Amino acid sequence: MSYKKVPIRVPPRLGKGWSLALGFAASLALASLGGETKAAPVAGPDLILTNGRVYTVETAKPWAQAVAVKDGKILKVGSVAEIARLKRPNTKVVDLGGRLLMPAFGDAHAHPVFGGLSYSRCSLHDGKTLEDYQRIIADCVAKSPGQGTVFGSGWNQALFPPNGVPRKEILDAVTTARPLIFESDGHTLWVNSKALEMANITRETPDPVNGKIDRDPATGEPGGGLEEAAMALMEKLTPPPTAKDREAAIGYTVKLFNSLGITSWHDAMVEWDASGASVVLDAYKAVKDRGELTVHTALDLQWNNGRGLDQLPDILKLTDRAHKMGLRATGVKFFIDGVIPRTDRRHARPL
User: Of 18, 169, 208, 280, which alpha carbon lies 20 to 30 A from 35's?
Assistant: First the structure.
């Protein structure tokens, strides 16, 4: 079988935007030249979004009415009539009904696992007052019988004036029979007296390096706040998330971000251990394998401040492992400074 070349001139007034339609016409012309000449099929869009207000972010042509998409990539942007010419029998057409269509957003600094987990356990995010927190926590205690730790996230430092330091008495009013541990922003824990007791934290306990035990200014007794590296004093009492918890956290964040028009994120800290394993990477892979990771991701691997350059080979292995999973983990997260919600913080662990 042979094909004959037929030159086609595109009139200047039509421009390059007509090349796909003309290519289709050329194929029909070739098919009519003879029984032995057969045109190769022309691929059309599998999706057309039409009748919308399409913001292109292009200075020369900022607005359009329709978009043609093939295999997840934009083929053409133009008027309703222009894009309608590209339609094929199997093309799905979505009428936007005059609604706005624009490029998606990307989040340049996110903590999808931490953020998702903060909603999956005892979440304080909906609380607006200390009384709200007490009510929510009391409900969490009632729903988790036993003597184990009740752990949660989402309290607001602004509810503890003047400097955002939380007080154990608020939690003690809920219970002193079991430990209560609540995280705010990844830099501070709020705990009750039982948690302090079980962790053996007293007035004599020194502040750890790069951390601070918040104390009553009058008595020096631990007041209920643990900042930065001092949070590690509660590690034995804090229930670790399960693999399903992490996967659910990523899934929650995906749905939340997609609902806001965010289709890419930069995970600013992916933890890994001395063996070179990363439960966070495993969680990403599991969600991706289920077809539920409907965002583009870039991942930063956490730098271990307790080690030196000897960890670089481990980081490179993790980068390669992530690549084989279909993920991109070519960045590194360093901790070199502290956060600034209070004037009295002088610690070395950042956002």
Answer: 18
Q: Tens of pLDDT along 200-219?
A: 999 999 999 989 999 999 99
| Contact (Cβ atoms closer than 8 angstroms) between residue 236 and residue 195 | no
* Helix 243-259 vs helix 112-120: crossing angle, to nearest 10: 100
Query: What phi, psi does 177 have (nearest 5°)?
Result: -90, -20
315, 301 in Cβ contact below 8 A?
Answer: yes
Task: Please count the other Cβ atoms lying within 10 Å of the Cβ belonging to residue 62.
Answer: 10
Long-range contacts of 194-202 (CB under 8 A, 24+ apart): 195/149, 195/234, 195/237, 196/168, 196/222, 196/224, 198/237, 199/233, 199/234, 199/236, 199/237, 201/226, 201/233
pLDDT computed for residue 118 by the predictor: 83
Predicted local distance difference test score (pLDDT) of residue 17: 36
- pLDDT score recorded for residue 305: 87
